[in-house]
Design a protein that fits this description.
The chain is mainly α. The protein has helices at 2-11, 15-28, 33-43, 48-61, 66-78. The radius of gyration is 12 Å and the shape is globular.
Length: 82
């Protein structure tokens, strides 16, 4: 539920509040690939390096996520982030 509120805030052009919500969600569920993925998606708005870091962490926890794999590929190719 907290994760969905983060996405709602992103949709409402409130990326700072969305990141705060995603961060709280990761604190509450530190081993949740979905929580970490939400944080990564939040950082896509402002900090691609952090987005990549958290997408990789999400993938470490759940290697069977095509969306996360795609986002890692997009970030590394489009922004030359390694």
């Amino acid at each position: 539920m907290m994760r969905q509120e983060g996405f709602t805030q992103l949709d409402n052009s409130n990326p700072k509040l969305a990141l705060e919500i995603f961060e709280l969600n990761v604190i509450a569920y530190p081993e949740s690939a979905k929580a970490i993925q939400g944080l990564a998606e939040g950082y896509m708005e402002t900090e691609n390096e952090l987005a990549l870091k958290y997408f990789k962490e999400s993938l470490r926890l759940n290697s069977d996520n095509p969306f996360v794999n795609d986002m890692i590929g997009k970030l590394t190719s489009e922004y030359a982030i390694c």
